[in-house]
Amino acid sequence: MKKYICIIISALSAISLCACGGKVSGAKTHEVDSEIYSQEDIESAIDVIKDEFKEEWSGCTLTEIYYAGDEVTKDHQDWADRNDADEVIVLLSSFDVDSSGGDGSLSPDSTYDDWNWILVRINGGQWKHVDHGY
């Protein structure tokens, strides 16, 4: 009996965790030429945001995410400096918000385009999301 209760509780927990996050399936990405970052560097930064989006952005669906380009990234170098990092990358995205308004800070039933995601890292390590918005 305990075994069945544990299985039911585990299943319910998994369902509730899935229901809390945003959606990213089918989010378009663009391959962009960069003199600063490899495609692998860019994709690993995108993966950080996709994972966070799934976990934290309830009521939202990520529809597009891509590298903002070398010039935009160079303009944000101060973010690396502020976060004791040596590299910064800027991504742009589009996402839809359902009638819930996400966490309440977003406009319900709307689309956000050109949303910035700023990530930093040290010596080619793991990207860390430090800011987002317009």
Structure description:
This protein has about 130 residues and is of the alpha+beta class. It has one domain (about 20-134). It has 4 helices and 4 strands. Strands 1-2-3-4 form a 4-stranded antiparallel β-sheet. Strand 3 (about 110-120) and strand 4 (about 130-134) form a beta hairpin. The longest helix has 19 residues, at about 1-20. The model is unreliable at about 1-20 (pLDDT under 50).
- Major pleated sheet: 4 strands, antiparallel
Total beta strand runs:
4
Q: State the share of residues found in helices, binned by percent.
A: 25-40%
Tally of helical runs: 4
- What does the overall shape look like? globular
Low-confidence stretches: 1-20
Output the keywords.
134 residues; alpha+beta; globular; single chain; 4-stranded antiparallel sheet; disordered N terminus
Describe the protein's topology.
Layout: H1 2-20, H2 39-56, E1 60-67, H3 70-75, H4 77-82, E2 87-97, E3 110-121, E4 128-133
Antiparallel strand pairs: 1-2, 2-3, 3-4
Quick overview:
This protein has 134 residues and is α+β, with helices and mostly antiparallel strands. It has 4 helices and 4 strands. The termini are far apart.
